[in-house]
Amino acid sequence: MGKSRVTNNIRTLRFHHGEMTQEQLAVKAGVTRQTIIAIENSRYSPSLELAFRIAGALGVKLEEVFTYHGEEEK
Amino acid sequence: MSYHERRAVAMMASTVLIFASYCLVLYLKYRGGDFVQADPLRLGAVILLLLIPLLIVSKILSMILFTIGQAIAVQGNPEIPIEDERDKMIGQKSAVAAFSIFGAGFFLAMGTLALAWPMQTAFYLLFFCIFATDIGIQIAEFRFYRRGF
Question: Do the chains contact at B84 and A32, CB–CB below 8 Å?
């Protein structure tokens, strides 16, 4: 499984959000810490619902967390 | 190792143990060549039909034992195994791998029958294919959890 075309700023946003740990974000988003790690490393692209939950947990808009590198880069 | 990786390893070990025990029982019962002498179609069907409930019951017992062992091992620091969307996706991808293994095994077994090979060859293949499917789903799950997805 290669890297996803969806990148994210979760690590940076966690840092700016009172150095929130992966575990704390996982609890707030209702997933496991392993899922947060997989998303942070762009191994797994979350569903739209989970993406909104993560953005909500970090207190920012969805587009500030995730960026899609798709057709426009070709 | 995460909870899911440990669970996959435990289930793999239980599968090997169950199949080894079942093979041993069958070997002791039919080592005199009774399998060939008796009606191989009926005997093969009975062996495969008995395997399915045996696998279900032993999997439930293995899961109970694993949960107890896990609770004892992480006393004071309990890891609550919640299932999220990634777990469900991994489950689905592992199931696809397992279906592919079973499909290939079934195809091969039917192939032996089409080529008029002995009946027991098809049953051996089906038996092995059930084992490979069970192991395959655990290996796939372990691999997906190991690399993240």
Answer: yes
Note whether B85 contacts A1, CB cutoff 8 Å: no
Compute the distance between CA of residue A56 and CA of residue B28 in angstroms, rounded to an integer: 62
Q: How far from the centroid of its chain's Cα atoms is residue B108's Cα?
A: 18
| CA geometry: angle A17, A68, A22, nearest 5 deg | 30
pLDDT per position as a tens digit, B78-88: 666 678 899 99
For residue B87, what is the nearest residue in chain A, using CA coordinates? A35
| CB of B4 less than 8 A from some CB of A | yes
Check B84 against A30: CB less than 8 A apart: yes
Q: Whole-model pTM?
A: 0.81
Measured from the Cβ of residue B84, the count of other Cβ atoms closer than 10 Å reads: 18
- Structure tokens, B25: 């029982």
For A44-62, give one letter per residue: b (16+ CB within 10 A) or e: bbbeeebbbbbbebbeeee
